[in-house]
Specification:
The chain has 242 residues and is α/β, with parallel strands linked by helices. It is built from eleven helices and eight strands. It has an eight-stranded parallel beta barrel with strand order 1-2-3-4-5-6-7-8, surrounded by seven helices. Helix 7 packs across helix 8 and helix 9 runs parallel beside helix 11.
């Protein structure tokens, strides 16, 4: 079902608010736990999601020296989550160490190995900021591609990229490489701070495996109606893709 391709972020600051949102949208099968919520209430929210048979995208965007990210990924993998993020800019040694550690942690806990995916470039950044603020001499599409290829070389399952780069990454990295796209915005929703966005149907047609869609759903007057509209759009797009 196309609804399973939508990951909804739990971008709230308390466990009570998170559970309220989960119960408001029982159709959602895949939830994202980010920094704000995890720092606020810790792994207890992961237990709550597991008890409800939900899939979990643990989006903590690890970025540190190899030994530290390895330890963090080993610990995170023990929770039985489905996806874990690490910045590709942590470098080759850190990425390889993180992948090995995630496998070790999952095996120790007797849970499936999570898919480790690399952040290529935050979707809140644009080409101008990449060049002027970060002093990266590559064009934005080339930079995100290089980050994805680095992740693939290091044995990671996939990458996080904006919808605008997903088609190029799909062509280059192949069908087995997982591509998760935040910054997806329906035509009827505000783009907010997302600077490299596409609609859900456009992102799916471009080759995204999962779409992270937050505020258009969670801040809608009727979140269930918003989710239904997105699901209908994706159903129509999937028929075209097939």
């Amino acid at each position: 079902m196309t609804i399973d391709k939508v990951i909804v972020p739990l971008d709230v600051s308390s466990q009570a608010d998170a559970i309220a949102l989960i119960e408001t949208l029982p159709q959602v099968t895949f939830w994202k736990v980010g920094l704000e919520l995890f720092v606020s209430c810790g792994p207890q929210i992961l237990k709550q999601l597991k008890q409800r048979n939900k899939r979990i995208f643990l989006d903590l965007k690890f970025h540190d020296i190899p030994n530290t990210v390895a330890g963090a990924c080993r610990a995170a993998a023990r929770y039985g989550v489905d996806l874990i993020t690490i910045h590709a800019t942590a470098g080759k040694v850190a990425l390889k160490a993180a992948q090995s550690a995630a496998e070790m942690g999952a095996n120790e806990a007797g849970v499936p190995v999570p898919k480790l995916i690399a952040i290529s470039l935050l979707t809140s950044l644009n080409a101008r900021e990449l060049a002027l603020d970060l002093k990266i001499p590559l064009e934005l599409p080339e930079y995100t591609l290089q980050m994805a290829l680095l992740a693939q070389e290091c044995g990671l399952a996939g990458a996080v990229c904006s919808p605008q780069e997903v088609a190029q990454l799909r062509r280059t990295c192949g069908d087995d490489f997982l591509l998760v796209c935040p910054g997806v915005r329906p035509s009827w929703a505000s783009k907010g701070d997302q600077k490299r966005s596409l609609t859900p149907s456009e992102a799916l047609k471009a080759g995204a495996n999962y779409l992270v869609i937050g505020r258009p759903i969670t801040e809608a007057n009727n979140p269930m109606t918003a989710l239904k509209l997105i699901s209908q759009e994706l159903d129509a797009a999937e028929k075209i893709v097939k």
